[in-house]
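DM from R.C. (forwarded with permission)

"hey, sorry to bug you on a friday — could you get me a structure for this? deadline for the figure draft is monday and I only need the backbone to look sensible"
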Amino acid sequence: MKEKDKSFDHLGPLFVKLVEIVARLRAPDGCPWDRKQTPESLKKYVLEEAYEVSEAIDHHEPLLVCEEIGDLLFLLIFLAYLYEEAGNFHLADVLTLCAEKMIRRHPHVFGEKKLAEAEDVIKQWQSIKEKETLEKGQASSALGNLPKNLPALQRAFRLGERASRVGFDWKDPQDLFPKIEEEIKELLQALSQGEKSRIFEEIGDLLFTIANFSRKLGINPEEALKAANEKFEKRFRKMESRLKGLGKDLKETPLSEMDALWEEIKKGG
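My reply, with the result:
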């Protein structure tokens, strides 16, 4: 970054312009669609845009990341504006509280305390969060307050990660093999008894254990499953295309033939 670009003064007018666009869209003579939106209706769009940012990062396309961050930022400003309209809080409150929180949680940067290791920063962050929770009169837990709406596999990963910080964890990844075998055995028992509710529970237990096995190996299970999904989809679409090229209908193709073609595609990468 050039020296002349280090000032952030030029960002103010650009931020204000986005807020003004939201205000114009929400005006009585603004956009009918935007005027209909509520915090509840915007939730799905916020989540979609967050995932699009994540996908753009995965594709290593900086210009696409730039665009997707803009879409997400606009929605967040829109969401804050709706609450401001309702008199709940102002956008300025969002910015102020966020700045205060980041400064408060980084005393090693904005204060005299110094930390050199990332692990020490995480411990300090958790300690500060716990203190804030207690000051609010809320129950404190080593698990924190992970959002219930996180993808379940990711939440299992994060819950295990947080429990491990207080020593509640398996020592080595290999230690989970007996647990995985135990969960598979319990699932087989549930299947043999035909108890739908227990099958449901046992599948959840198995997935939770697999998520933590993945964590112990230093692999994010959400990312691993995402890659597996993409691999399956790519291979399936290739198989589908090959069959169409042969003039065959996928639905009428015998499973044995699909399996043979699938194995051929797998060998091809």
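R.C.: lifesaver. The longest helix spans residues 221-245.
me: no worries. The chain has a mean pLDDT of 93.
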